[in-house]
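Action item from last week, closing it out:
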Amino acid sequence: MKNLKKHNPYTLSTYFLLSLLIINFSLLISSCGVYKFNDASIDYSKYKTIKINFIENRAPIINTQLAPKLNDKLQQKIVSQTRLTRTSDDNAHYQLSGFISTYNVTTAAISSTQAATNRLTVGVHMVVKDILENKTDEFDVSRNFDFSANLSIDQAYVQLQDEIIRNLTDEIFNHIFSNW
């Protein structure tokens, strides 16, 4: 049997061009890291401390689980994604406070004259004091969460609670620290 030599259709220049293409593509993908939305833009040479007051629940409908979970998640996010030190001191460089202002259900979709989908709206009013710059920023965050009309508001909250807490926390954090 003859020793058959396989013919290689690729030349050295083809391998070189293919390598350049892969390298350029890799650099393009890695450079997209600039668009991380959870990066905090804080001047750490100036700002060192933060006081996070308890976010109260002042909504017309009170969900007793919402405020404690929102507080915990917001504190965890700030501690894990910034270098600010939490303090209870009234002279902290940043001071956060706020309250849950909205917690209500409306009909979002109707099918055959019956509600098919309901919408839970959760809103939070936040106040951020920058003691060093003597500035106060007040803002509202509100999110809608759709759920089956067959569920009660309590059942819907159990299903949606992780998404609610995560979305509100991210939006509050981004407003405060990412200059959105």
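Closing note: The domain at 44-177 is CATH 3.30.160.150 (Double Stranded RNA Binding Domain).
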